[in-house]
Fold these 2 entries.
Entry 1:
Amino acid sequence: MTEIPEHLLKRSRERRAALGLGGGGTEDAPAASGGETPAAAVPATSEAAPAPAPATPAPEPKVEPPKPDPPYIQAAKRRKRIPYWAMPVLAALPLWGYVYVRTLEPPPAGEDDPLVIGAGVFSGNCASCHGGTGAGIGNAPALADGAVLETFADWRDQAAWVRIGTEGWPADTYGDSQKPVGGSGGVMPAWPTLTDAQLAAVVMHERELSGADMSEENPDNEDLYAVARGEMTLAEAGLGPDAERSGVTEEDLGG
């Protein structure tokens, strides 16, 4: 085998080194003896490339801490909540307030007036005989146009007659005009079922129908108003002169 000149080998190695194929060292030279095939050339070790710099991480966004609540909101959060059972109570408050206010209002005008009460008692018990205006019906005597005042000048005599009636009257006559009991005037029923206040109120109404001044300012009506308001009983008011003369007692006035 023909030996390759050294300068050609050197040039070959330089060429390979330039192309990055290795070579350029003496170790690639074939052995000088024995006709052995030269070993493959060992490429020259190139300088290591620098490692890429690590990527810079993106900065994290700055998170601002939450702002504290205003004092009034903090107070609202600390405030105790209304319990569920209180809701119906709160809903009923307007109704309760309305009822309460109504209890404070005075009664409608006239409901506690003895004359108004007397008119109601008369309409329900006496008007069927004496008429709604006191003009009288049949044998029942009239009460209007001074008739009551002519018969009973003292209201206490009239109250005794209304309480006792024809059957309980102890004398044969009644009233200032001495009318016969059970005569043309018919039968007067007793009214033990009326309270003293109701009886006094109906006496007031009948005397008003007759034309009397039944105002509270009239001093003659002081005791009559007291009985009609429940401040005095008929027995405490006493008997009129005709009732005493006829033998009526205070016990008879109690019904």
Entry 2:
Amino acid sequence: MTTTITLTVNGREQRLEVKASELLLNVLRDRLHLTGAKYGCGLGECGACTVLLDDRPILSCQTLAVSVSGRRITTIEGLSAHGEHPLQQAFLEEGAVQCGYCTPGMILAAKALLDRNPDPSTEDIRHGLRGNFCRCTGYVSIIRAVKNAARRLRG
């Protein structure tokens, strides 16, 4: 049995037939070919699947697609639709990217944080990125990147 849902994904309305058990992560990756959100742990513990739902970070591997019908989704692809976002620039400049697997989720969690708090402290950044794990870079360069992007976005 399928249900018709409508989502606005990266500014474009999408109308899809989905199974009741279909995860948002699978819809994004397999149906819409937006592969920035990654399948990591499948348990909602690593953050690799993070996307923004109405500008708030969610774990798409734990979210049923039918539960977000009528809502707005932003993926990493949508963040850079109009050129490289300051967060993406800062992650590159600060060496906050190694294998890149966690990077889309980290950047989207950081965007949600900076939208709420344009001048976060180190502790605010740590708190805002909790649940997003990186096994390559450590977090020093990631925190520097978020601070760098915050400065740019503030002007």
